[in-house]
Amino acid sequence: MTQAHRIVAIIVAAGTGVRAGGSVPKQYARIAGRPMVAYSYDAFSTHPAIAETIVIIGEGQQALAAESLGSSVRTVIGGTTRRESVANGLAAITDATHVLVHDAARPFLSAEVIDSLVLALKTRDAAIPVLPVTDTLARGTVLLGDIVPRADLNRVQTPQAFSVEALRAAHAVWLGDEEATDDAQMVRRLGVGVALVQGSAMLEKVTHPEDFAAAEARVAYETRTAMGFDVHRLETGEELWLGGVLVPHDKGLSGHSDADVALHALTDALLGTIAAGDIGTHFPPSDPQWKGADSAQFLQHAAKLIADKRGRIDFVDLTIMCEAPKIGPHRAAMTARIAELLGLTLDRVSVKATTTERLGFTGRGEGIAAQAVATVRVPGAPA
Ligand SMILES: Nc1ccn([C@@H]2O[C@H](COP(=O)(O)OP(=O)(O)OP(=O)(O)O)[C@@H](O)[C@H]2O)c(=O)n1
Ligand SMILES: C[C@](O)(CO)[C@H](O)COP(=O)(O)O
Predict the structure, then answer these.
(1) Are the CB atoms for 28 and 68 separated by under 8 Å?
(2) Does residue 1 lie within any of the structural domains?
(3) Site annotation (Positions MEP for the nucleophilic attack): which residues (predicted)?
(4) Which of 5, 246, 297, 310 has its CA 20 to 30 A from that of 222?
(5) Distance 26 CA to ligand 2 centre (A)
(6) Which of 187, 209, 231 is the last residue of a domain?
């Protein structure tokens, strides 16, 4: 590799994903809530050796690509075969010395694999990541035929790294008599030595419908637990909203909003799981627009912030502390309302209550306290 090198990444994402099925081409299908193509796009975009990342997309998929990758993504329209899509990408490169060609269908690309390829390009015109074959290989369709020695066989992955000159030459002379399944075999046919570097099990290609579950399982989730606590004063002449339910009682809770102390504690617990401040940060009591507000919207706002981080609420547990009213008769309604607001099944919502044995402000009926614990999973880097 010369001193003045510039490496560009091309992600081929113009396939139709026939084998994977689904309502959108597989590269736009979501893995852990995120479009598949976004994973490798991020890997290249954040790697210091990659100057630019170009995504090859299907005709009419500009909106899908922008929605998945942001509007500043550089796209080029692909062809009817993978080879044509790569060729279109190559034609769009003006000032690169080297290129890494990668399948959008291999989402979990590590910086280590990119590093190995970039290093190999210092001495070679081409390099690819490979894995050894670990199954016995045999010929045959109905009956077992000959065993194929596997010791020197490789499973070839992407990204595949090339000097732009070598890859351009390979594409220029390709006769089109047969389809090339990858670019490495094309440059090799010209006599270019292709270096083999260590591939990765994480780079497995998503090809069939069942591969999505395997990809999903490769995403590492971080479990977060946080708690919330709140108190409101009981006063005559107020409605008593608790756990999203209007509870008949001779007093109600007072506050700037509807004062649903249970939903407030839950909201704070959820916000805590993503370190997003507390309910007052998002809905300041000084803001008149929240006067008398339905606390359901506070809870749903916290749930949306978690969803925006592609997090999943696993479980919420709520304890209401008061002498009266009795919570038992309303527990099922509260559980159902909270489950509805958070989009959870009933078995992921726990509503409990306790008295404080007539002790303290709750014991004297001056107010109601609530405490909540939420458990959430937030996706991190691939495992
Ligand atoms: N005309 C094509 C065909 C494929 N690809 C890309 O090449 C990669 C590897 O191809 P494959 O896994 O075979 O994807 P599809 O061609 O979409 O799948 P299928 O063969 O099941 O239709 C994918 O990222 C795919 O989007 C491409 O850019 N242009
Ligand atoms: C490029 C490739 O991913 C290397 O293994 C593979 O050849 C693509 O094959 P497909 O038949 O287009 O999925």
Answers:
(1) yes
(2) no
(3) 150, 205
(4) 297
(5) 14
(6) 209
